[in-house]
UniProtKB/TrEMBL annotation:
Protein name per UniProt: LysR family transcriptional regulator
Organism phylogeny: Bacteria, Pseudomonadati, Pseudomonadota, Alphaproteobacteria, Acetobacterales
Keyword entries, A-Z: DNA-binding, Transcription, Transcription regulation
Pfam families: HTH_1 (PF00126), LysR_substrate (PF03466)
Species, as recorded: Falsiroseomonas selenitidurans
Keyword DNA-binding belongs to the record: yes
Family statement drawn from the similarity comment of this UniProt entry: Belongs to the LysR transcriptional regulatory family.
SUPFAM superfamilies: Periplasmic binding protein-like II, Winged helix' DNA-binding domain
């Protein structure tokens, strides 16, 4: 029995669409239709009821689905445990938030390239809200973002936290430190995207202090926020790892603000049915890189102290 046909059957069952499955598997709708037809001929049963608007599992299809998932999962686990690193191949569609791009993501990509050279990576960098939507639409195999994903047949791992601070250009005429959060309200605020957790944290801290930011602008790019802050166009909250280079070069300074911003908690999410060996493997690698990054940060803080 052709394993690719079983994988195609599982994705059609999940997405209820031949065209969406074709997009997900990077093939044509005709190829998906032919694989399902061939599988139905081999099994001697009809797996789907089709009409112009929808695709639905038949009773025989529902009975076959869990067994097909078991076969694919066990086969992938066997391949992952026995095969050489060159045998793990395929395409990984991964989404990641900007914050990890400026911290440990480059080390993760280098490790993927060195360990599994036959794996092709399709990387999307966007906000957590956008990445979560793409993951729920099965457009991504692995999502690295803020907050866990709570859903059936989804594994969600906590990867670690990225400490954050407030930053401004050295020539900005800010009050003497330490600064209460209320003292920043009169300055332009360069914030994360509207609706994101860091954006909501900023609003909550201002509200708790009984003030409202005079001018708050929202961005989905940390690089843009840093450039604008370096040009004295506002104060901004950034992951400390992202700002380190600008601090060393003297383009930004860290502000001692009370209360300090909370860290960004990063999670990895991937589906367990059908199991994706590449996504599972890379999630484990991401966890190791995030933990190593956190240890390096703590060691540097200890040396500085």
């Amino acid at each position: 029995m052709n394993l690719r046909f079983l994988e195609t059957f599982i994705w059609v069952a999940r997405l209820n669409s031949f065209s969406a499955t074709a997009d997900r598997l990077h093939t044509t709708q005709a190829a998906v239709s032919n694989r399902i037809a061939a599988l139905e001929r081999e099994l001697g049963v009809r797996l789907f009821d089709r009409d112009l608007r929808s695709v639905r599992l038949t009773p025989e299809g529902r009975a076959a689905l869990s067994r097909a998932e078991d076969i694919v999962r066990l086969t992938q686990e066997f391949q992952g445990a026995i095969s050489s690193k060159d045998a793990l191949r395929g395409r990984l569609a991964m989404g990641a938030i900007d914050s990890v791009v400026h911290s440990w993501l480059p080390r993760l990509i280098r490790r993927i390239q060195q360990t599994y050279p036959c794996v092709e990576l399709d990387l999307t960098v966007d906000t957590s809200l956008t990445i979560a939507g793409q993951f729920h639409r099965s457009e991504l195999d692995l999502a690295i973002m803020m907050g866990p994903v709570i859903a059936p047949q989804v594994e969600s791992r906590f990867l670690g936290s990225l400490p954050c601070s407030w930053y401004a250009a050295p020539d900005m005429d800010l009050p003497a430190e330490p600064l209460p959060i209320a003292s920043l309200a009169a300055w332009p605020i360069l914030a994360f995207s509207r609706g994101s957790k860091p954006h909501q944290d900023i609003l909550r801290h201002f509200a708790d202090a009984g003030v409202k930011a005079t001018a708050l602008s929202n961005f989905n790019s940390i690089a843009t926020m840093m450039i604008l802050a370096e040009d004295s166009l506002g104060v901004t909250m950034l992951p400390d790892a992202a700002a380190q280079g600008a601090i060393t070069a003297g383009r930004l300074r860290r502000l001692a603000v009370t209360p300090p911003p909370p860290p960004i908690d990063v999670h990895a999410a991937y589906t367990t049915q059908p199991r994706n060996t590449i996504a599972t493997t890379v999630a484990s690698m991401a966890q190791a890189e995030a933990e190593a990054f956190g240890r390096r940060g703590r060691d540097e803080e200890g040396d500085a102290g």
